[in-house]
Amino acid sequence: MSKRFAIHIEYDPRKMEQSRRRHEARANFKIVDRVPVLFCLERRYFLPLLHSGFNEYLKDVETHYELQLRYNKYRIENIVEDFCLDDSITVYPFFENVVNASGMGGEIGWSDHEPARAIPILNRVEDIDRLPVSEPTSGLWGQRLRWWQRMQELAKETTITFNGKPGRVEVAPLDIGWEGPHMIAVDLAGVNFYEWMLEYPEACHRLMDKVTTGMIQAARFFRQVDPRPRPTYGTAEDSSQIMSAELFKQFTVPYDRKLYEAFGAGLKNGRGMHMCGDSTHLHQALNEDLKITSFDLFGYRVAPAVAARNFGGKALMWGNINPMLMLDGTKAEVKAAAHECLAALAPCGGLLLGDGANICPGTPLENLAALTEAAAEFGVPGASGRN
């Protein structure tokens, strides 16, 4: 019986096995033969390569699904990293970093050439108390659920092979996304929220409570629909890195802690954090107040030596080569930056070498490969004849 979709991938099974071993070792702060390498490669990188824009990518679930099959194939066959771990590819409804803002009633601006962005809807502090706690199927929460259900059906209509042998399509576990409560508050209120935290702190806490409550309700509903276990839990607070440590402890820490306690408790890596920019002044709070277990795709403005000093041996780390250097620099320059990162962070264990954060469209493949080459050259810290 013919299937609706067909995707054929050529990739050495021995590379899958070695990549899987590297990731498993890294989770235990160990290294097999080299540090594993993985990039933050979002749709804005792949869509031009597939001669598509965001309008086509998001026009319906079938096109969304098919383009994900194609970009998985491109990534596995062309980008040198530790991405492919077995004979499967994973798909998922992906609407950029605006799902939670939409679920909470926010407006979304769409563009064919750029990722979607949230448009603030809280223009006055008085608007906070008129904002309801949304239902778990509101906005893009509901669309993600519907498209996720349809993708389960599409996966059954797909033929996939690896090196001529049958593979499989996995639809990732249903979730609400990584955007943290403070990010969503800024999405809803815009830059006004930074002033309001100083002038109207009680109102801002009411908004943070509403956002966090809505997120927990939606996430629990999604887990009822899809009860598969999640091995990790993480959140992202890009909007917090420009705050003082004092404000961070007041307006971000309590609400991220609620999420970690609700969904990360009992997980080995249950307190993941992503934060772009220079988060150095927040590291003490990340360690002592939130007790993060992984620092995921942390911003390139954090010097590797600083990250090693503050998180080495305590949290898994993923990062943090400058994406602009990877876009515009020479391969030699990218490799030198990778070696600097490895020298500082590889001896700590738990490093996943990558960008810090988000690969720019047009980044040359040779500059991506430079990270894996540097990791192979660096090898295992302390091994005979090596660093």
Written overview of the protein:
This protein has helices at about 15-25, 45-50, 55, 60-80, 100-105, 140-155, 180-190, 190-200, 200-225, 245-250, 255-265, 285-290, 305-310, 325-330, 330-345, 365-380; strands spanning about 5-10, 90, 105-110, 115-120, 160, 165, 170, 230-235, 270-275, 295, 315-320, 350-355. It contains 16 helices and twelve strands. Helix 13 packs parallel to helix 15. The chain has about 375 residues and is an alpha/beta fold. The strands form four sheets. It has a five-stranded parallel β-sheet with strand order 8-9-10-11-12, sandwiched between helices. A three-stranded mixed β-sheet has the order 1-5-6. Strands 2-7 form a two-stranded parallel sheet. A hairpin with a 2-residue loop joins strand 5 and strand 6. The protein has a single domain (about 5-380), classed as TIM Barrel (Alpha-Beta Barrel), CATH 3.20.20.
CATH architecture: Alpha-Beta Barrel
Task: Report the portion of residues in β strands.
Answer: 5-15%
Q: Unreliable stretches, pLDDT < 50, 5 or more residues?
A: none
Order of helices and strands: EHHHHEHEEHEEEHHHEHHEHEHEHHEH
Helical amount among residues, as a percent range?
A: 40-55%
Distance between the termini: 55 Å
Instruction: Using the alpha-carbon principal axes, give the shape.
Output: globular
Number of strands: 12
If you consult CATH, what is the topology? TIM Barrel
The figure for the number of domains is 1
Structural class: alpha/beta
Strand order of the largest sheet: 8-9-10-11-12
Estimated radius of gyration: 21 Å
Number of helices: 16
Main sheet properties: 5 strands, parallel
Mean pLDDT over the residues:
96
